[in-house]
């Protein structure tokens, strides 16, 4: 498996002859596309069709909980099964600055895949989940291309995200309503003025 991981990495990883424009595009995907997660949370919670707002906030709560659980699991796995990044063992070419910490599973991959899978599983419309999944695949490619992750880091991130979705699915019937109600109370307390002014939805 490790030999396959290295072979696939070297096939995807950029070389010093890669066009600078392509490297800049890959860096943008690797560093900035992940911002789609907080933007989705903020926009989906604060604004939109009032008739669908409650249902959308439930999905955002589920997705955010899945994200948190996935990142916690990723930290635990990283502590228990540390794995060096490609540049840490002198393999391939690195085009994105990164600390030489454990690479498995990818935090970026865990974040975007957990969010995408949550929307695919629980949103009535599958388009947001598919768009997020496309972002996830692009992020996965870019971080391998730039030399800071292995392909199996991304596959592992997808599997951990899938497991987290299963865990949330089990926990939600018992704790979901209470969690959403608590978040609603906190939101109204923090954004009371903006709600009264009509800047954001109640």
TrEMBL record:
Q: Which UniProt keywords apply?
A: Membrane, Transmembrane, Transmembrane helix
- Cellular-component GO terms for this entry: plasma membrane
Which SMART domains is this protein grouped with? acidPPc (SM00014)
State the PANTHER family in the record. AT30094P (PTHR14969:SF13), SPHINGOSINE-1-PHOSPHATE PHOSPHOHYDROLASE (PTHR14969)
Q: Which Gene3D superfamilies match?
A: Phosphatidic acid phosphatase type 2/haloperoxidase
Name the Enzyme Commission number(s) assigned to this protein.
3.6.1.27
Which catalysed reactions does the entry list for this protein?
di-trans,octa-cis-undecaprenyl diphosphate + H2O = di-trans,octa-cis-undecaprenyl phosphate + phosphate + H(+)
Q: Which NCBIfam families match?
A: PRK11837.1 (NF008813)
Q: Which residues form the Phosphatidic acid phosphatase type 2/haloperoxidase domain?
A: 58-169
* Top-level taxonomic group: Bacteria
| UniProt GO molecular function | undecaprenyl-diphosphatase activity
The UniProt transmembrane annotation reads: 20-47, 59-82, 102-122, 129-148, 154-180
Name-wise, this protein is undecaprenyl-diphosphate phosphatase
């Amino acid at each position: 498996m490790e030999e396959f991981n290295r072979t696939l990495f070297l096939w995807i990883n950029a070389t010093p002859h890669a066009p600078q424009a392509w490297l800049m595009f890959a860096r943008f995907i690797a560093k900035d596309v992940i911002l789609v997660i907080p933007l989705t949370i903020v926009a989906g919670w604060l604004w939109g069709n009032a008739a669908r707002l409650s249902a959308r906030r439930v999905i955002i709560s589920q997705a955010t909980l899945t994200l948190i659980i996935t990142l916690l699991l990723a930290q635990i796995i990283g502590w228990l099964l540390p794995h060096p990044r490609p540049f840490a063992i002198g393999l391939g070419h690195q085009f994105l600055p990164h600390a030489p910490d454990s690479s498995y599973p990818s935090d970026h991959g865990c974040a975007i895949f957990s969010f995408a899978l949550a929307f695919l599983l629980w949103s009535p419309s599958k388009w947001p989940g598919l768009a997020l999944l496309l972002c996830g695949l692009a992020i996965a490619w870019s971080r391998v291309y730039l030399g800071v992750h292995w392909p199996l880091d991304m596959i592992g991130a997808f599997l951990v995200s899938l497991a987290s979705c299963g865990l949330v699915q089990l926990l939600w019937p018992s704790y979901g309503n209470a969690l959403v109600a608590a978040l609603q109370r906190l939101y109204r307390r923090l954004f009371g003025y903006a709600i009264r002014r009509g800047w954001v939805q109640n």
